[in-house]
Amino acid sequence: xxxxxxxxxxxxxxxxxxxxxxxxxxxxxxxxPPVVSVYNWGGFYIGGHVGGAWxxxxxxxxxxxxxxxxxxxxxxxxxxxxxxxxxxxxxxxWQASNFVFGLEGTVSGLDNHGTVLNTVFGAGLDDQFSxxxxxxxTITGRAGIAVNNNLFYxxxxxxxxxxxxxVVDAVPLTGSGSQTQWHNGWTVGxxxxxxxxxxxxxxxxxxxxxxxxxxxxxxxxxxxxxYTFDAKPRDIQSAVxxxxxxxxxxxxxKY
Length: 255
What we know:
The chain is mainly beta. The chain has a single domain, classed as Porin. The chain contains one helix and eleven strands, in the order H-E-E-E-E-E-E-E-E-E-E-E. The chain has one helix spanning 2-25, and strands spanning 36-38, 43-64, 76-96, 99-118, 127-147, 150-169, 175-195, 200-211, 214-217, 227-246, 252-254. The strands form two sheets. It has an eight-stranded antiparallel barrel. Strands 1-11 form a two-stranded antiparallel ribbon. A hairpin with a 4-residue loop joins strand 7 and strand 8 (200-211). The two termini are 65 Å apart. The relative contact order is 0.22.
Protein backbone atom coordinates (compact mmCIF):
# COMPACT_ATOMS: atom_id res chain seq x y z
CA UNK A 1 0.00 0.00 0.00
CA UNK A 2 2.83 2.32 0.88
CA UNK A 3 4.48 1.64 -2.50
CA UNK A 4 1.23 2.43 -4.30
CA UNK A 5 0.93 5.80 -2.48
CA UNK A 6 4.54 6.75 -3.34
CA UNK A 7 3.99 5.87 -7.02
CA UNK A 8 0.82 7.98 -7.16
CA UNK A 9 2.59 10.98 -5.61
CA UNK A 10 5.47 10.70 -8.11
CA UNK A 11 3.04 10.54 -11.01
CA UNK A 12 1.21 13.65 -9.75
CA UNK A 13 4.47 15.61 -9.39
CA UNK A 14 5.48 14.68 -12.96
CA UNK A 15 2.18 15.91 -14.36
CA UNK A 16 2.51 19.24 -12.54
CA UNK A 17 6.04 19.72 -13.86
CA UNK A 18 4.93 19.01 -17.44
CA UNK A 19 2.05 21.48 -17.10
CA UNK A 20 4.43 24.19 -15.83
CA UNK A 21 6.78 23.55 -18.75
CA UNK A 22 3.89 23.83 -21.20
CA UNK A 23 2.85 27.14 -19.67
CA UNK A 24 6.41 28.53 -19.94
CA UNK A 25 6.66 27.51 -23.59
CA UNK A 26 3.57 29.42 -24.75
CA UNK A 27 4.53 32.31 -27.11
CA UNK A 28 4.06 35.91 -25.94
CA UNK A 29 1.76 37.95 -28.22
CA UNK A 30 2.64 41.68 -28.49
CA UNK A 31 -0.05 44.32 -28.72
CA UNK A 32 -0.46 45.75 -32.27
CA PRO A 33 1.43 49.01 -32.89
CA PRO A 34 -0.64 52.19 -32.75
CA VAL A 35 -1.92 53.56 -36.05
CA VAL A 36 -0.71 57.10 -36.79
CA SER A 37 -2.59 59.14 -39.39
CA VAL A 38 -0.38 60.95 -41.95
CA TYR A 39 -1.78 63.84 -44.02
CA ASN A 40 -1.84 63.06 -47.73
CA TRP A 41 -0.87 66.06 -49.92
CA GLY A 42 -1.15 64.13 -53.19
CA GLY A 43 -3.92 64.79 -55.66
CA PHE A 44 -5.74 67.38 -57.71
CA TYR A 45 -6.78 70.69 -56.11
CA ILE A 46 -8.51 73.95 -57.04
CA GLY A 47 -8.93 77.19 -55.14
CA GLY A 48 -8.75 80.96 -54.89
CA HIS A 49 -6.36 83.57 -53.55
CA VAL A 50 -6.56 87.26 -52.62
CA GLY A 51 -4.11 89.87 -51.36
CA GLY A 52 -2.07 92.78 -52.66
CA ALA A 53 0.49 93.44 -55.41
CA TRP A 54 3.12 96.09 -56.16
CA UNK A 55 4.35 97.03 -59.65
CA UNK A 56 7.34 99.06 -60.85
CA UNK A 57 6.46 100.45 -64.30
CA UNK A 58 9.04 102.00 -66.64
CA UNK A 59 8.78 103.69 -70.07
CA UNK A 60 11.57 105.39 -72.05
CA UNK A 61 11.04 107.33 -75.29
CA UNK A 62 12.90 105.95 -78.31
CA UNK A 63 11.47 108.12 -81.14
CA UNK A 64 9.24 111.21 -81.47
CA UNK A 65 8.21 112.81 -84.77
CA UNK A 66 4.79 114.04 -83.55
CA UNK A 67 3.84 117.64 -82.89
CA UNK A 68 2.17 116.94 -79.55
CA UNK A 69 4.76 114.67 -77.93
CA UNK A 70 7.01 116.48 -75.44
CA UNK A 71 9.63 113.79 -74.72
CA UNK A 72 12.79 113.15 -76.71
CA UNK A 73 14.65 109.83 -77.10
CA UNK A 74 16.18 108.89 -73.77
CA UNK A 75 13.55 110.74 -71.71
CA UNK A 76 11.14 108.71 -69.65
CA UNK A 77 9.63 107.84 -66.32
CA UNK A 78 9.40 105.12 -63.70
CA UNK A 79 6.54 104.84 -61.24
CA UNK A 80 5.44 102.42 -58.54
CA UNK A 81 1.80 101.42 -58.08
CA UNK A 82 -0.06 99.01 -55.84
CA UNK A 83 -3.50 97.49 -55.64
CA UNK A 84 -5.68 94.49 -54.88
CA UNK A 85 -4.57 91.17 -56.34
CA UNK A 86 -6.69 88.04 -56.55
CA UNK A 87 -7.83 85.14 -58.70
CA UNK A 88 -7.91 81.37 -58.98
CA UNK A 89 -5.43 78.50 -59.04
CA UNK A 90 -5.48 74.85 -60.02
CA UNK A 91 -2.81 72.18 -59.60
CA UNK A 92 -1.74 68.64 -58.85
CA UNK A 93 0.64 67.30 -56.17
CA TRP A 94 2.70 64.11 -55.96
CA GLN A 95 3.99 62.95 -52.57
CA ALA A 96 6.94 60.64 -51.84
CA SER A 97 7.54 60.24 -48.10
CA ASN A 98 7.84 63.83 -46.79
CA PHE A 99 8.65 65.32 -50.21
CA VAL A 100 5.89 66.94 -52.26
CA PHE A 101 6.17 67.95 -55.92
CA GLY A 102 3.54 69.64 -58.04
CA LEU A 103 2.45 71.74 -61.00
CA GLU A 104 0.19 74.76 -60.65
CA GLY A 105 -1.47 77.34 -62.90
CA THR A 106 -2.91 80.67 -61.77
CA VAL A 107 -4.94 83.49 -63.32
CA SER A 108 -5.14 86.72 -61.33
CA GLY A 109 -6.62 90.17 -61.74
CA LEU A 110 -4.81 93.19 -60.34
CA ASP A 111 -5.48 96.91 -60.03
CA ASN A 112 -1.97 98.33 -60.32
CA HIS A 113 -1.99 101.65 -62.18
CA GLY A 114 -0.61 105.15 -62.13
CA THR A 115 -0.52 108.57 -63.83
CA VAL A 116 2.46 110.85 -64.48
CA LEU A 117 2.24 114.47 -65.68
CA ASN A 118 5.28 115.54 -67.68
CA THR A 119 6.19 119.15 -66.87
CA VAL A 120 9.66 119.18 -68.42
CA PHE A 121 8.69 122.13 -70.62
CA GLY A 122 6.41 123.82 -68.08
CA ALA A 123 2.90 123.19 -66.87
CA GLY A 124 1.42 124.49 -70.12
CA LEU A 125 3.28 121.95 -72.28
CA ASP A 126 2.45 118.59 -70.84
CA ASP A 127 2.12 114.93 -71.61
CA GLN A 128 -0.09 113.02 -69.22
CA PHE A 129 0.93 109.35 -69.17
CA SER A 130 -1.25 106.61 -67.70
CA UNK A 131 -0.39 102.93 -67.25
CA UNK A 132 -2.14 99.86 -65.94
CA UNK A 133 -1.24 96.20 -65.31
CA UNK A 134 -4.62 94.49 -65.06
CA UNK A 135 -4.22 90.70 -65.16
CA UNK A 136 -1.50 88.06 -65.15
CA UNK A 137 -1.08 84.31 -65.46
CA THR A 138 1.55 81.84 -64.23
CA ILE A 139 2.51 78.21 -64.83
CA THR A 140 4.92 76.96 -62.18
CA GLY A 141 6.48 73.90 -60.61
CA ARG A 142 6.36 73.45 -56.84
CA ALA A 143 8.59 71.50 -54.45
CA GLY A 144 8.17 71.24 -50.71
CA ILE A 145 8.60 69.42 -47.43
CA ALA A 146 5.53 68.09 -45.61
CA VAL A 147 5.41 67.99 -41.83
CA ASN A 148 2.11 66.15 -41.43
CA ASN A 149 -0.57 68.85 -41.96
CA ASN A 150 2.01 71.55 -42.79
CA LEU A 151 3.58 72.03 -46.22
CA PHE A 152 6.51 74.42 -46.78
CA TYR A 153 7.27 74.95 -50.47
CA UNK A 154 9.05 76.97 -53.14
CA UNK A 155 7.87 77.53 -56.70
CA UNK A 156 9.09 78.92 -60.01
CA UNK A 157 8.26 79.12 -63.69
CA UNK A 158 6.53 81.21 -66.33
CA UNK A 159 4.65 84.48 -65.74
CA UNK A 160 2.87 86.80 -68.16
CA UNK A 161 1.06 90.11 -67.64
CA UNK A 162 -1.31 92.31 -69.64
CA UNK A 163 -0.02 95.91 -69.64
CA UNK A 164 -1.37 99.21 -71.07
CA UNK A 165 0.38 102.55 -71.64
CA UNK A 166 -1.34 105.72 -72.90
CA VAL A 167 -0.62 109.43 -73.36
CA VAL A 168 -2.79 112.54 -73.73
CA ASP A 169 -1.62 116.08 -74.53
CA ALA A 170 -4.24 118.84 -74.47
CA VAL A 171 -2.10 122.01 -74.84
CA PRO A 172 -0.84 123.64 -76.94
CA LEU A 173 -1.05 120.86 -79.57
CA THR A 174 -3.54 118.10 -78.96
CA GLY A 175 -2.81 114.45 -79.43
CA SER A 176 -3.22 111.07 -77.77
CA GLY A 177 -2.42 107.42 -78.20
CA SER A 178 -2.41 104.11 -76.34
CA GLN A 179 -1.40 100.50 -76.73
CA THR A 180 -1.89 97.27 -74.77
CA GLN A 181 0.60 94.43 -74.90
CA TRP A 182 1.25 91.06 -73.28
CA HIS A 183 4.67 90.75 -71.56
CA ASN A 184 6.28 87.34 -70.96
CA GLY A 185 8.51 86.79 -67.95
CA TRP A 186 9.37 84.54 -65.03
CA THR A 187 8.33 84.17 -61.42
CA VAL A 188 9.64 82.66 -58.18
CA GLY A 189 7.94 82.36 -54.83
CA UNK A 190 7.53 80.56 -51.53
CA UNK A 191 4.65 79.65 -49.29
CA UNK A 192 3.13 77.67 -46.46
CA UNK A 193 -0.06 75.60 -46.48
CA UNK A 194 -1.99 73.86 -43.72
CA UNK A 195 -4.50 71.05 -44.17
CA UNK A 196 -7.38 71.92 -41.86
CA UNK A 197 -9.28 68.82 -43.04
CA UNK A 198 -8.52 66.00 -45.47
CA UNK A 199 -9.78 68.23 -48.28
CA UNK A 200 -9.66 71.89 -47.22
CA UNK A 201 -6.32 73.73 -47.20
CA UNK A 202 -5.42 77.29 -46.19
CA UNK A 203 -2.10 79.01 -46.87
CA UNK A 204 0.00 82.09 -47.48
CA UNK A 205 2.26 82.81 -50.49
CA UNK A 206 4.70 85.49 -51.69
CA UNK A 207 5.80 85.78 -55.34
CA UNK A 208 8.23 87.94 -57.30
CA UNK A 209 7.92 88.28 -61.11
CA UNK A 210 9.92 90.09 -63.81
CA UNK A 211 8.92 90.80 -67.41
CA UNK A 212 10.38 91.58 -70.81
CA UNK A 213 10.62 95.02 -72.40
CA UNK A 214 8.41 95.82 -75.43
CA UNK A 215 8.00 98.73 -77.83
CA UNK A 216 4.80 100.82 -77.54
CA UNK A 217 3.56 103.15 -80.31
CA UNK A 218 1.57 106.03 -78.80
CA UNK A 219 1.22 108.32 -81.84
CA UNK A 220 -2.49 107.59 -82.19
CA UNK A 221 -4.14 109.70 -84.89
CA UNK A 222 -0.78 111.40 -85.59
CA UNK A 223 0.48 108.31 -87.48
CA UNK A 224 2.53 107.89 -89.63
CA UNK A 225 4.35 110.15 -87.16
CA UNK A 226 5.71 108.12 -84.24
CA TYR A 227 5.77 108.56 -80.46
CA THR A 228 7.48 105.32 -79.44
CA PHE A 229 8.51 103.98 -76.04
CA ASP A 230 10.36 100.99 -74.65
CA ALA A 231 8.14 100.02 -71.73
CA LYS A 232 7.66 97.19 -69.28
CA PRO A 233 6.42 96.30 -65.82
CA ARG A 234 9.90 95.90 -64.34
CA ASP A 235 8.54 93.59 -61.64
CA ILE A 236 5.39 92.61 -59.82
CA GLN A 237 5.46 91.44 -56.21
CA SER A 238 2.42 89.86 -54.61
CA ALA A 239 1.41 88.45 -51.23
CA VAL A 240 -1.82 86.45 -50.93
CA UNK A 241 -3.80 84.18 -48.65
CA UNK A 242 -5.02 80.97 -50.29
CA UNK A 243 -7.96 78.61 -49.83
CA UNK A 244 -7.92 75.31 -51.76
CA UNK A 245 -10.07 72.20 -52.03
CA UNK A 246 -8.18 68.94 -52.60
CA UNK A 247 -10.05 66.08 -54.30
CA UNK A 248 -9.75 62.40 -53.35
CA UNK A 249 -7.19 62.77 -50.57
CA UNK A 250 -7.82 60.22 -47.78
CA UNK A 251 -5.69 60.18 -44.65
CA UNK A 252 -2.91 57.60 -44.97
CA UNK A 253 -2.32 55.19 -42.08
CA LYS A 254 1.28 54.82 -40.90
CA TYR A 255 2.38 52.02 -38.52
